[in-house]
Amino acid sequence: MTSINKWLYQNPHVRTIRVAAADLNGQARGKRLPSRFADKLATEGTRFPLSVLNLDIWGEDIDDSPLVFESGDRDGILRPTERGFMPMPWLEVPSALLPIWMFREDGRPYDGDPRHALARVLDRYKARGLTPVVAMEMEFYLIDDSGRSLQVPISPRSGKRRKAAETLSIRALDSFDKFFSDLYDACEAMDIPADTAISEAGLGQFEINLVHCDDALRAADDAWLFKMLVKGLARRYGFAASFMAKPYDEYAGSGLHTHFSVLDEQGNNIFNDGTNKGSDAMRSAVAGCLRAMHDSTLIFAPHANSYDRLVPDAHAPTAICWAYENRTSALRIPSGSHAARRIEHRVAGGDVNPYLLAAVILGAALDGMAENLPAPDAITGNAYALDLPQLAPNWASAIDAFESSPHIAKIFAPELIRNMVLTKRQELHYMGELNEREQQEIYLDTV
Question: Which of 27, 278, 322, 375 is in Cβ range 3.0-4.6 Å of 282 for a Cys bridge?
Answer without folding.
Answer: 278
